[in-house]
Design goal:
mainly alpha; 16 helices
């Protein structure tokens, strides 16, 4: 067996901790900025939905690099894995710089086109947060690429420890800039920027200094473009990036719909989204582990082990998500009070969190964790097509029907989201069981 139970635990547990810490960055921003007012919370929430669209592009590149490196390691080809790692860093950095310039130059048009006629104070806060967020894109791209490479090596502790330091810097920076210097949204954005810069520096130092690890970067500033390796990364990254981008475009369109319901709906959605993201953290972490484990098995051309580990990781997902969701649902009233919301906003946020928690445990793993096994086996076009069709038919069209047609408001949007999960789950389960993914080839 390529991975023992101890190997899986060493990979999964740090990833879960890292995911928890990653979410606390957004929660810390939102909770601390909540003292400034609901307009600040709404401004950050709107910009984050745009940020995620852009961030997902180079996150998809990191996934492509992780799959390629994992498969090379499965084939015992360390030198090729190191070459692919350098191509990944080069590609993601260039993409992130392009996205940064685009966001900075198009800040106001992007906000106005996407969210329409929002309140003046919400628009002002969104302007400030978008500038600082955009500057952090290259740093976040480098950190994501480095973390993906360490996951490919089966060493998720590095990214976990780095995430701990990033969180300490972010939370400490929030406290200083928001409560001491009274900088509001600008303080939250600046603290996030500094934490991401720290993460990028740490990753680059570790990847270039330690030549004994499975993957390392040699001669960092000696640019060596290898078209064939970049093509392999892009064969995974482009469909995955297109899938993620369309997914985020759909979320932005839905966010625009929510913004038309007023500040109460925007704030309730922002708060509920923060708590809801915590409920699926174990699934997100195990989904990352799935790419490493299945990718290594596929590289070794051992498809039976790939299937075995997929079932095992799915079992872990349901176990850990069940434990966490029960704990979080019990604490939802306390979480709502922390955000200093109006009674109407608090009641809406509470309903959204309870509904999400119940549905997420049942449906979310098969719609978002299982497809990572298909991606790691190079079956990315299928996952892309299913995700795009499901997003438009279920999440977007159904959102407008339920939210406006049936006048369910923001609740209708969240019901449509669960319909999207159901659609995805059906197609991904059938695809995996039929074994078509075994026929896909990535490396020559």
């Amino acid at each position: 067996m390529l991975f023992s139970k101890q190997d899986l635990r060493r990979l999964i547990i740090p990833l879960i901790i890292e995911q928890i810490l990653a979410v606390t960055i957004g929660m810390a921003d939102t909770v601390m900025v909540a003292s400034v007012g609901e307009a600040a919370v709404s401004g950050i929430s709107l910009v984050d939905s745009v940020n995620q669209l852009l961030i997902n592009i180079f996150s998809a590149m990191a996934t492509g690099g992780a799959v390629v490196c994992s498969q090379y390691l499965g084939r015992q080809e360390r030198n090729h894995a190191c070459d692919a790692a350098k191509q990944l860093l080069l590609g993601t950095t260039v993409l992130a710089l392009i996205l940064m310039v685009t966001a900075l130059l198009g800040r106001d048009p992007i906000i106005r086109i996407v969210f329409g006629d929002i309140e003046a104070d919400v628009f002002h806060n969104a302007q400030i947060y978008m500038v600082l967020s955009a500057i952090s894109y290259p740093f976040l791209a480098i950190y994501n690429a480095g973390a993906a490479l360490y996951r490919s090596m089966g060493n998720s502790k590095i990214s976990m420890y780095t995430s701990v330091l990033m969180n300490l810097v972010n939370i400490g920076g929030n406290a200083l800039t928001i409560f001491v210097f009274q900088m509001g949204v600008a303080g939250a954005g600046l603290a996030t920027l500094l934490s991401r810069a720290l993460g990028a520096v740490i990753m680059m130092v570790l990847l270039t200094r330690n030549h004994t690890q499975s993957i390392y970067i040699q001669r960092l500033f000696h640019l060596e473009f290898r078209p064939q390796m970049m093509k392999s990364i892009l064969r995974i990254g482009i469909p995955n990036g297109l899938e993620n981008s369309v997914f985020q475009v759909g979320k932005v369109l839905v966010q625009s719909l929510i913004s038309s319901f007023g500040t109460t709906a925007i704030a309730a959605n922002a708060v509920a989204s923060n708590i809801a993201s915590m409920m699926v953290l174990p699934g997100s972490a195990i989904g990352l582990a799935m790419i490493t484990v299945v990718g290594r098995c596929v590289g070794a051309k051992d498809y039976d082990q790939a299937k075995h580990y997929t079932f095992q990781l799915m079992k872990y997902t349901y176990l850990f998500m069940g434990i966490l969701d029960v704990a979080l649902l019990a604490c939802t009233p306390l979480f709502v009070r922390l955000y200093n919301l109006t009674p109407e906003t608090a009641a809406t946020a509470l309903w959204l969190m309870i509904f999400y928690g119940i549905c997420a445990f049942i449906i979310w793993p098969s719609s978002f964790v299982l497809p990572n096994a298909l991606r790691a086996a190079n079956d990315v076009r299928y996952t892309m097509i299913v995700s795009i069709v499901s997003m438009w038919l279920c999440r977007i069209v159904a959102s407008y029907i339920l939210a406006r047609g049936l006048q369910l408001g923001v609740k209708g949007v969240w019901i449509a989201m669960v319909l999207d999960w159901v659609f995805r789950s059906i197609f991904f389960i059938v695809r995996f069981q039929r074994g078509k993914w075994r026929e896909k080839q990535l490396l020559g």
